[in-house]
Amino acid sequence: MKKLLLMCAAASCLAVVQVHAQVNTPPAAAVDPAMAEYKAARDKISADYKADKAACDAMKDNAKDVCKEEAKGKEKIAKAELDQKQKPSDSNARKVAEAKVEVAYAIAKEKCDDQKGEAKSACVKEAKATEAKGKADIKAMKK
Which of 93, 45, 57, 35 is nearest to 65 (CA)? Predict the structure, then answer.
């Protein structure tokens, strides 16, 4: 009889624990639609970058380097713009502008590699001047 009472008590406790566990189970994590959209956009940017970079593989010499720089730049700007879209702020707007200036400079500088001597020096000097103007404009945005 004692064993029967112990078995009943143990079975009751187990049933209570199981019911308690079911009641306190948190619901499945709800996916924020905005975050899902953001992640999908990030994935698309990465996929576009990979496709753009793969397209560069068919090219040769400096054209290939310019193409790769353009692909990296496009990705960098797209990510900055996505962040600005997700969380609009002056800081993120500046980051978009900075990305555009940096990318323009990197591409211009890479294009200068096609030239030689004085023409190359002039090209690099012009790219640096354009970059400096862009940075000055960004600095003015901060005020």
Answer: 57
